[in-house]
Design a protein that fits this description.
heterodimer; A: Aldehyde Oxidoreductase, domain 3; Aldehyde Oxidoreductase, domain 4; 3 domains; seven-stranded mixed β-sheet; six-stranded mixed β-sheet; 18 helices; B: 156 residues; alpha+beta; globular; binds FE2/S2 (inorganic) cluster; oxidoreductase activity (chain B); metal-binding (chain B); 2Fe-2S (chain B)
Chain lengths: 763, 156
């Protein structure tokens, strides 16, 4: 195993990427592919009175026009089936597909869209989350009761889903507590903004749909497209080219069903690619949310009980993971601190806005922001040190989180100690008026427990080939992680391991590149298959070497006999010998997360019930605020992160840098604004992403805290570095300006407004 | 109208209309390495060099390159040749994740390092400000660029 694990191997897909020869989804096309364009709703809520596509059908170059009649199926991402490909007589958001056209040229397709006749009768739109829940408000889905769900959950009217967790006697504790503190926090939508937009190329061949699409989760897209089209999943084949970024935005099906419907009608391949404006307006972002917290504390700063109401915006339907992850807020609020009595209610709400979806850290970052600002508020009320209150309440190894799950390996205190040690002296900017502040935030986060299957074979040249549906979205989990694990298992150089690109026809099920699970889930499945292949190799080699299996060792691409240096057979020789004797060497492996004891009785409506391979973190930030402009500058940032076992430290650092900078975007700049259901930010001109000048120095310390069920102890690493960033920046800014902040992002205007309010209060 | 220019050392003659962006010609004639990220001049994924200067080819009018030298990512290292120092450093430094921004980043850094052989970190960051990378947080890109400049200082 030496020489591969813990090393900074270059990515196996790297040369093609730096040379520009990698073919991404946005580059892929097929011979004679038609161009597709989508007619999208321009009002947030309306009844379709008349939809006439006959003129469009007859336009030059047009091969197919599709509407709701062509795709009758109802689907939803895992939890709740309330979505169709095209508006079904009712429009629920601006940007909702009403019809689509496939034509010889993009211009012809656009001309045909313009020829579609549409008559609408407006309906009263619903935008505000609290408003949506009032009994007199119009229902976004009057048929909500008829929709299928994966598990039962409280739902009603515009409350699409409710997940809740309750422990202990909350009311009694509140009635007698020394101090009760209450707060409300708000956060906006954040857009994934992968550099590569969504794209799909579909063709219909021998009764099946073949779709090339840069998706993070090929098997989900297969299932979703099948459901929406009303066919069996095996009638769909998903093939994944190089992916140009995802961050959760490419988990769910998006353009694939449109391409499939059109390809079948046209009898030709159809290619569809989002413009940046479509991307911003319709490709589902992180949900906007409201978090209300109420906490009972003792005089010495011990949390006695906490209540939370979290409202998150589902948008018009349950595509994306907002519903599936509805129980993340309770787990996150009650996963880092000891909260003996808790009542957490997470409400996912329908509005007439574009649907929301997973974004790195699903449903978590705004809960952590709220919890940490709230803790600072409690510390202020008690006159207590902000760090002290965290240390007093943070979960220690062997203590239980709110779902009753015991965190045996919690290293939150170590993580806090580590960042404290790392927080040296910052170089100030030189602005004499600048206000400075610091903050430290601990966090417990999850590794996604989804299952994986992998096939491993020994190739005739002695290479190891892993066939897997694990998507390489850029993290390096496939391009280095799985390869390093398998190379170590076989004692072959990294370069001798090949992982095939995802193809749902060839590979077993995999639960997608999400929640930092690829190295853990697919790594385990690949190691399971590898162990079986290894046994077959040793068996054949034992025959060739006339030795006992127990005396064999596999190293440097050959099988040898321990203690006998010159008796060896290469893996290629073993493969060749096996072909006509035992048969080709290959095996299937699988992974399913081991059960974790927790108290299911305290939860209702939860699809996510526990933390698999929990990881422990602490982030530190020091900021400067210019009191004249409100501009926040991050002077220093430090991260201590539990990674289980570092398979490729350099790739992990890259994930931490990237996660922190995306988190800074959420904290300081990014705000996908809506007005009357219309997404105002239709491009990168007004939607502000962090640039090279916005990235502060980031110090990193990896904590190796092995997970017994992870491959060689590894845990998920890519998602968590984003999660606490807005919280630590928010707390540091509040520390600097001496007044709390309650909403994100912390734009200069908001910071100035907070300072102005403070000055007003002081006079 | 007709437009003639040199793309990666080869003569190209193309029929364009007034608003054809240079990106279209580059992708048609050189390969798909140059990416259409935003199409609005903000992300830099489409960066190519015109007479050695980086431009956002998604907005840059093809008509402007008449008679000039255009270089895209495909020119940086011949297909069967080793990687350029910038490409090599980016891979060595772990600066490539999804890679969608990387062709543009390679062009920006190549242009910078052709002009200045020892830019400061601040200078590298300022030059990169037009290249949005959503994955890496920029640190490893910047470190890799600086590693090229230190490597080139060593005696051969
Ligand atoms: S594609 Fe040209 S700048 Fe984004
Ligand atoms: S590596 Fe993905 S955008 Fe830069």
């Amino acid at each position: 195993m030496t020489g591969v694990i813990g090393q900074n191997h270059r990515r196996a897909d790297g040369e093609a990427k730096v040379r520009g020869t990698a073919i991404y989804g946005m580059d892929y096309t097929e011979r004679a592919a038609l161009h597709a364009k989508v007619l999208r709703a321009e009002v947030p809520a309306a009844r379709v009175v008349r939809l006439d596509t006959s003129k469009a059908q007859a336009m030059p170059g047009v091969w197919a026009v599709a509407t709701a009649a062509d795709a009758p199926g109802l689907s939803g991402m895992m939890a709740l089936k309330d979505q169709r490909v095209f508006a079904d007589g009712v429009i629920r958001y601006i940007g909702e597909p009403i019809a689509a056209v496939a034509a010889e040229t993009p211009r012809q397709a656009r001309a045909a869209l313009a020829a579609i006749e549409l008559e609408l009768e407006p309906l009263e739109p619903v935008f505000d989350l609290d408003e949506a829940l009032r009994p007199e408000t119009r229902l976004v889905h009057p048929d909500w009761e008829s929709y299928q769900t994966m598990v039962p959950a409280p739902r009603e009217g515009n409350l699409a889903w409710q997940a809740s967790t309750e422990r202990g006697d909350v009311d009694a504790v509140f009635a007698t507590a020394a101090i009760v503190v209450e707060d409300e926090f708000r956060s906006p939508r954040q857009h994934q903004c992968s550099i590569e937009p969504h794209a799909a190329v579909a063709r219909y061949e021998q009764g099946r749909y073949i779709v090339h699409t840069p998706t993070q989760f090929p098997f989900l897209v297969r299932g979703r497209v099948a459901e929406l089209l009303g066919v069996r999943p095996s009638e769909i084949r998903i093939v994944v080219p190089t992916i140009g970024g995802g961050f959760g935005g490419k988990l769910d099906s998006m353009l694939e069903p449109l391409a499939c419907v059109l390809a079948r009608k046209a009898g030709r391949p159809v290619r569809i690619v989002n413009t940046r404006a479509e991307e911003m307006a319709t490709a589902a972002p992180r949900e906007n949310a409201v978090v209300r917290l109420r906490t009972a504390v003792s005089e010495d700063g011990e949390i006695l009980a906490q209540e939370a109401e979290v409202l998150s915006d589902n948008g018009a339907n349950s595509s994306g993971e907002t519903v599936a992850c509805a129980n993340i807020p309770p787990l996150v609020l009650g996963g880092t601190y000891r909260i003996p009595n808790a009542r957490y209610v997470s409400k996912v709400i329908y509005t007439n806005t574009p649907p929301t979806a997973a974004f790195r850290g699903v449903n978590g970052p705004y809960c952590v922001f709220a919890q940490e600002m709230h803790l600072d508020h409690i510390a202020r009320e008690l006159g207590m040190d902000r760090r002290e209150i965290r240390r007093r309440n943070v979960l220690k190894a062997g203590e239980a989180m709110v779902n009753g799950q015991v965190l045996d390996d919690a290293v939150l205190t170590d993580a806090l100690d580590t960042v404290e040690r790392m927080s040296g002296e910052a170089t100030p900017s030189g602005n004499p008026k600048a206000l400075r502040g610091t903050a430290v935030v601990p966090l417990t986060w999850i590794t996604n427990p989804g299952p994986s299957g992998a096939n491993v074979k020994l190739d005739e040249d002695g290479s190891i080939v892993v066939t897997a549906a694990a998507a390489e979205i850029g993290t390096g989990a496939v391009a280095t992680g799985i390869r390093q694990l398998v190379a170590a298992e076989f004692g072959v150089p990294f370069e001798r391991v090949v992982v095939t690109p995802p193809d749902t026809d060839a590979a077993g099920y995999d639960h997608g590149a999400q929640g930092s699970r690829t190295t853990v889930g697919m790594g385990n499945a690949a190691l399971d298959a590898s162990a079986k292949v290894r046994d077959q190799i040793l068996d054949v080699a034992a025959g060739l070497l006339e030795a006992d299996v127990a005396d064999l060792e596999l190293a440097d691409g050959a099988v040898g006999i321990s203690g006998v240096p010159d008796r060896k057979v290469t893996l290629a020789e073993v493969a060749g010998a096996a072909l006509f004797t035992t048969g080709p060497i290959a095996a299937a492996g699988s992974f399913a997360a081991p059960p974790i004891p927790f108290d299911a009785g305290c939860m209702v409506g939860a699809l996510f019930t526990n933390f698999f391979a929990a990881t422990y973190h602490a982030h530190f930030a020091e900021v400067e605020v210019d009191p004249d402009t409100g501009k926040v500058t991050v002077l220093r940032y430090a991260v201590a992160q539990d990674v289980g076992k570092a398979i490729n430290p350099q790739m992990i650092e890259g994930q931490i840098h990237g996660g922190v900078v995306q988190g800074l975007g959420f904290a300081l700049y990014e705000n996908l604004r809506l007005d009357g259901g219309l997404v105002l930010d239709q491009g990168l001109e007004s939607y502000r992403l962090p640039t090279a000048l916005d990235a502060p120095p980031i110090d990193i310390q990896l904590l190796e805290n092995p997970y017994p069920h992870g491959p060689l102890g590894a845990k998920g690493v890519a998602e968590p570095p984003l999660v606490p960033v807005a919280a630590v920046i928010g707390c540091a800014v509040a520390d600097a300006i001496g007044v709390p902040v309650r909403s994100l992002p912390l734009s200069p205007f908001d910071v100035l407004a907070a300072l102005r309010d403070k000055r007003r209060d002081e006079v | 109208m007709k437009c003639s220019f040199t793309l990666n050392g080869r003569a190209v003659e193309a029929e364009i209309d007034g608003l054809t962006p240079l990106l279209r010609l580059v992708r048609d004639h050189a390969g798909t390495g140059t990416k259409l990220g935003c199409g609005e001049g903000r992300c830099g994924a489409c960066t190519v060099l015109v007479d050695g200067e980086p431009v956002a080819s998604c907005l840059y009018p093809a008509a402007n390159v008449e008679g000039r030298q255009v270089r895209s990512i495909e020119s940086i290292a011949a297909p069967d040749a080793p990687l350029s120092p910038v490409q090599d450093a980016l891979l060595d430094g772990g600066a490539v994740q999804c890679g969608a921004c990387i062709p543009g980043v390679v062009m920006t850094l190549t242009a910078l390092l052709e002009k200045e052989n020892r830019p400061s970190e601040e200078r590298v960051r300022t030059e990169l400000v037009g290249n949005i990378c959503r994955c890496t947080g920029y640190h490893k890109i910047v470190e890799s660029a600086l590693a090229v400049t230190t490597a080139s200082e060593e005696p051969v």
